[in-house]
Write a structure and sequence with these properties.
about 375 residues; alpha+beta; Immunoglobulin-like; 3 domains; nine-stranded antiparallel sheet; two-stranded antiparallel sheet; 10 helices
Length: about 375
């Protein structure tokens, strides 16, 4: 067959061949288009909330004279170990306390300082009542008529040890209600052990006088050192905030694509004051196994947590403390298993900052109603 005949045949079949080639190319291109352009993930990240949380692991000993003055205002149980059965164990040799416990103790001390005159007046009134019962010629307060109900109304456990207060009440009840030890005469009330009751009330009076004296000394010293306690607690709070705090970031991850994606368990917050003045905070995803998967057309709340600030380089830590709560802006960056990086819009680098933005948006919409 000559070359001219071959060319003539090709001309007669050029259209079918062209259609076949175009069909082949189209068939090959459609899956490629679907894979790389249509059936892909399309992830958007939005910061929901940034929280700065104080670590529960930060504890403080009563290592100064000023802090020692807070000891009476701290729950006694915190000075003891707890056994496996829940019972009180041995006394802790060097007890430490969280910051909230010290703050609450300080508040109680300030209240106690304000109530010092009332406390002394109340205790003095109880002592006067005891003296009245111990005066033999006082017809209004006769010792044989003293009962445990009156002692309970004094609330002794607020002034003396709980066990000691319970002991006094138990002994009064025993003296006035232990009928097996009483002497009975026909037609007359049982005879109480008056000497025992007199001795008991005298003993209680001495205890209350000691409480007044001790309170006068302790509260006078407390009054003189309130400013020092306040300064030390402010320093402790600053140390907890600047060194022993961490960040939690709530983010909303939306996959608008037709293919699922999986996020890596790490993230990054970049806090910026201006273009060249920034600090990066490394994050780890919480509940990674359940939060990292993003099915097609889905939205998921993802939560990240940073390390405590004392684990950061000093320079970075100082920048974090300087930027927080100011005009600094924060962006969240994360990536998927294909190493595609996603970046959120900027929000204020402050506690619950995005919540204010959302409220402002709602108010703006409400204004048009």
């Amino acid at each position: 067959m000559s070359l001219e005949n071959i060319k003539q045949r090709l001309r007669s079949h050029i259209k079918p061949i062209g259609v076949a080639v175009i069909g082949f190319l189209s068939a090959a291109a459609i899956p490629i288009w679907q894979i790389y352009f249509v059936e892909t993930s399309d992830i958007e990240i939005e910061i929901g909330e940034i929280r700065r949380i104080h670590s529960d692991d930060y504890r403080v000993a009563l290592s100064t004279e000023e802090l020692q003055l807070l000891k009476p205002y701290i729950d006694e149980a915190l000075f003891y170990e707890v056994e496996a059965n829940g019972e009180r164990g041995d006394k802790i040799r060097y007890p430490t306390f969280d910051v909230d416990t010290l703050i609450q103790a300080y508040k109680k001390a300030k209240i106690d300082l304000k109530n010092i005159a009332e406390t002394k007046r109340q205790l003095s009134h109880y002592i006067e009542t005891i003296d009245a019962y111990l005066t033999t010629d006082n017809l209004e307060f006769q010792l044989i008529e003293f009962r445990v109900g009156e002692m309970k109304s004094w609330g002794l456990s607020s002034y003396i040890d709980d066990d000691e207060a319970a002991y006094y009440e138990h002994e009064v009840l025993s003296i006035t209600r232990n009928y097996s030890d009483m002497t009975f005469k026909s037609g007359k009330a049982p005879k109480l052990n008056v000497p025992a009751l007199e001795f008991l009330l005298s003993d209680l009076k001495e205890d209350l006088l000691e409480v007044i004296a001790a309170n006068d000394v302790r509260l006078d010293k407390l009054r003189d050192n309130m400013r020092g306690i306040d300064v030390q607690l402010n320093k402790i709070q600053s140390e907890q905030r600047d060194l022993y705090s961490y960040f939690e970031v709530d983010a909303v991850a939306t996959n608008n694509g037709r293919v699922g994606a999986a996020l890596r368990p790490i993230g990054l917050i970049r806090a910026t004051i201006n273009g060249n003045n920034y600090v990066d905070i490394k994050l780890e995803m919480l509940d990674f196994q359940t939060s990292s998967e993003l099915p097609p057309s889905s939205t998921r709340l993802v939560r990240y947590r940073s390390f405590e600030l004392h684990q950061m380089p000093v320079e970075d830590r100082n920048l974090v403390n300087a930027f927080w709560g100011t005009t600094g802006q924060a962006r969240l960056l994360n990536l998927d298993t294909k190493r595609q990086v996603y970046t959120s819009k900027a929000t204020a680098f402050a506690d619950k900052s995005n919540r204010k933005i959302l409220y402002d948006q709602l108010k703006k919409s409400a204004a048009s109603l």
